[in-house]
Amino acid sequence: MLRRKVIDLHCHVLPGIDDGPDTFAESIDLARAAAASGVTTIVATPHVSSEYRNEAGEIARLVVELNTRLRGAEIAVDVLPGAEVAMAMVGELAAEELEQLTLGGGGWLLIEPPFRQIVTGLDAIVGDLQTRGFGVVIAHPERCPAFRADHGMLSEMVRAGALSSVTAGSLTGRFGAGAQALATQLIAERLVHDIASDAHDTRARAPGIAAAIASGGLEPLAHWLTVAVPRAVVAGEQIPPRPDP
Fold this sequence. Notes:
Radius of gyration: 16 Å
Largest sheet: 6 strands, parallel
Number of domains: 1
CATH superfamily: Metal-dependent hydrolases
Strand order of the largest sheet: 3-5-6-7-8-9
CATH architecture: Alpha-Beta Barrel
Helix content: 25-40%
Number of strands: 9
Distance between the termini: 16 Å
Mean pLDDT: 95
Strand content: 15-25%
CATH class: Alpha Beta
Structural class: alpha/beta
């Protein structure tokens, strides 16, 4: 079921730009592994943070170059531009830059909450972005200690129109029992809209979404989580309602 047309909304596939691949050869290997797992579209989401001050222009250039090389290698994966924007960086970026960092150009920003026990101001930042016309996808909330302690803030943001994206590896225990338990709980509470790989390489942080969907017993939601929602995000279209299997 998940061997075709899966859209990976969060993947560090671009070379030499963050903690993902170092070279184009490694990026191609990562894309090849993603294709083998059923992914046909990858949104490249390099970090935009205090450590990795990536800019939209360089991201776009690397996306074009990587797509050219993938065609040459006969790897049937399309790479779209995007970014994983650290919460603390949002206020430093001009509106024009933020627009170019949206996922696939569809108007949705992938926002990374800090890995801290206490997170303050995220809801205000999300609300401000929404007021300015951006959609917001919260990256891997199940791996954020603050949400593990109390995911009420996530619930409020989702009710206000934000989406959340869980890392596939969390469903298989890759990030520990706490992340696995919270991912399962958030899905049950209808607070998750996407399952993405957040892949960085072909070894420790390899791509692969189908196995996680199967291990989590999420086949009835598979198309919605991995095709319908991410397709709407990158196209800038209305998010389809979650089915009730």
